[in-house]
Amino acid sequence: MPNAISTKERILVTGGAGFIGSHIVDAFIAAGHHVAVADNLHTGHRENVNPAAVFYLQDICDVPSLRYVFAEEKPTIVCHQAALADVRASLRDPAGYAAVNVIGTLNVMETARDTDSARKILFASTGGAVYGDPAELPATEACPARPLDPYGASKLACEYYIDTYRHNFDMEYCVLRYANVYGPRQDPNGEAGVVAIFAGAMLDSANRGRQIVINGDGKQTRDFIYVEDVARANVLAMQRGSGIINVATGVPTDINAIFRELARLTGYTLPERHGPRKPGEVFATYLDGSRAARELGWTPAVTLSEGLARTVAYFRAQSA
Predict the structure, then answer these.
(1) Of 29, 286, 293, 306, which has the fewest beta carbons less than 10 angstroms from its beta carbon?
(2) What is the pLDDT of residue 280?
(3) Vertex 87: Cα angle to 82 and 90 (nearest 5)
(4) What is the model's pTM?
(5) One of 56, 131, 151, 178 is an active-site residue; which one?
């Protein structure tokens, strides 16, 4: 693969119309790069795509159209964000998750190898699901990977496959294991995290009086990372870092605390209500982000309180 580093990269973002992918596209464009987006709009939205990006309505499972995009764009960086990403849906359809996440990733890797333009692959993995119930907290990149659901297993399989491309074909890569990403553009009705689900429902409930149910006792802890911080990590990873790197705050926050802060921000007044814990759910996880600081020069810039306020402002504007 080519090793020359240019000041202006040609970047292909798969899944670039999605929640995280569209913010990454914005960050690449703001940094002055040429960006193309390939997305089948299964969960992404065309309106999320920055107008300065070239858009292809394309599926990573469709190899001929994937080859067409690579031939047209000749990307020097491939930022692979496209995936199915719902833990509970993966329990219902593990084969479907393997077909999209694993085979789709192999399609991207094979096309990148065949076209021979890309010097580096950036891959979106999941620290929230790959580590399972971590053997250590905070979980470092050396923590044993023990996913509890097919979604996490599919992402871990992709990591192993991508590493074989470096071993056999000298393809440079950086796997970014995201913590629990939240922020504007996350779909509260789709493959959403708890922040989007709660914020959307709380703003809805002002009109409908619909009570929100917290799964389990709400003491489950997560490492919540704002989406723009994740986007910035991808920009830095183009030129720095290799192997596996956590993108995280290193701070655990329980679901009850998220509920209460969002209730305060939205004016939601109904009491907490708890339901059964969901199958396949990790109880406690947060990640060590010190390697990202060392290798990428990255640390999170947006505090949880500021990020939640921005997220609520976004959903409030959307519902106006």
Answers:
(1) 306
(2) 66
(3) 80
(4) 0.95
(5) 151
